[in-house]
Amino acid sequence: MSSHADNSLLKDKRPSGSKKVWFTMLFVIIAIVGLTYVKWWPYYFKALKAAAEHTIGSSILTGDQAAAPAPSFQSAWDYAVDYFKSVWKAAVLGILLGSLVQVLLPAKWLLKALGKAGFKSTALGGIASLPAMMCTCCAAPIAVGLRKKNVSVGAALAFWLGNPVLNPATLIFMTFVLSWKFTLMRIGFGLILTFAVSYFAGRLAGQAPIPEQVQEAVDQPDEPSGSFLTLWLRSVGTLLLTIVPAYLITVLVLGAARAWMFPALGAHGMNTVLAIVIFAIAGTLFVIPTAAEIPIIGTFLSFGFGTGVAGALLITLPSISLPSLLMVYRSFPRRVVWFVTGSVIVLGLLCGAISAVIL
């Protein structure tokens, strides 16, 4: 009898049907307002600049030079400052939305749309990424939040990967600054990465044990009990503690090591197979703001690097990075994370090889 009473009391603490609707509407409003301020409105003016001037700024990697500065603490600090000036608003928005996904969106609704292992959930996750237009690190907290709600591996990955590689604004900038050929290459390989790689990664996950953080969400009732403020503070606090320290440290390390990761090459080696391999791996690990790959590629091309290197960076630079991999590492089976990392490198190599021939 007491057990039945406890269950009834628990149900009373869960959001009612009408409250779920209001919570969902609140999430949508916050997302629209945040994206308008951080992404959509600034990108409108950036698109006008790209159309008129055929540039969106200098390379964050090397500035106006052919090579990155020598490794040093100052180099690490300078890059970190420039990087976080570019992304801090989007990073805050990503953490905010990643925490609100866990407390505002009804679990059953999410599972119905994105919880299955089939291609439909993966496709919906990829489509949902298009309006967000975030870089890989800023989208990572939302992907983590989706996994904590037990969204399928394929859907969460498609959302995470689709944000940077199928970003509509980046595609517009790329067309004006580089060329429509680069844009078509990006779309083709971006579709493969977002939908095919995510789908097969979900199949690879199979019946793998659910990560600890996700298992906690599964073991809880349909909707966790407690006040909204308590649940949200717990959610955002967990994200901050598990994501931000590694994020800060790895950005500093990569900023210092960029001269080693993207070495200056002689004229004889700027479009060789070895150069494409080096830059594909470096691009996969390195971290950049949204659309920063465009001026980076433009700078490298202007200093004589071949289109093979440009093609490799076109896919690998925006897709993932060491910081973003560390952010999501505990929310996906390990073999999935390694599969995605390897897939990005392979697709970067293929894009580089094709670009060397046809661009």
Provide a compact summary of the structure.
With 359 residues, the chain is mainly alpha-helical. The chain has one domain. 76% of the residues lie in helices and 0% in strands.
What topology does this entry show?
Blueprint: H1 2-13, H2 17-53, H3 73-104, H4 107-114, H5 119-129, H6 136-148, H7 153-165, H8 168-177, H9 180-205, H10 212-219, H11 228-261, H12 273-285, H13 293-302, H14 307-319, H15 322-328, H16 334-358
Task: Give a verbal description of the structure.
- The protein has 359 residues and is an all-alpha fold.
- The chain has one domain.
- It contains 16 helices and no strands.
- It has helices at 2-13, 17-53, 73-104, 107-114, 119-129, 136-148, 153-165, 168-177, 180-205, 212-219, 228-261, 273-285, 293-302, 307-319, 322-328, 334-358.
- Helix 9 packs antiparallel against helix 16 (334-358).
- The chain is globular.
Order of helices and strands: HHHHHHHHHHHHHHHH
Q: How many domains would you count in the coordinates?
A: 1
User: Please, what is the oligomeric state?
Assistant: single chain
Give the uncertain stretches in residue-range form.
1-12, 208-221
Number of continuous helical runs = 16
Percent strand: under 5%
Distance between the termini: 74 Å
Overall morphology? globular
Structural class: mainly alpha
Mean pLDDT: 88
The biggest beta sheet is recorded as: none
As a percent range, the share of helical residues equals over 70%
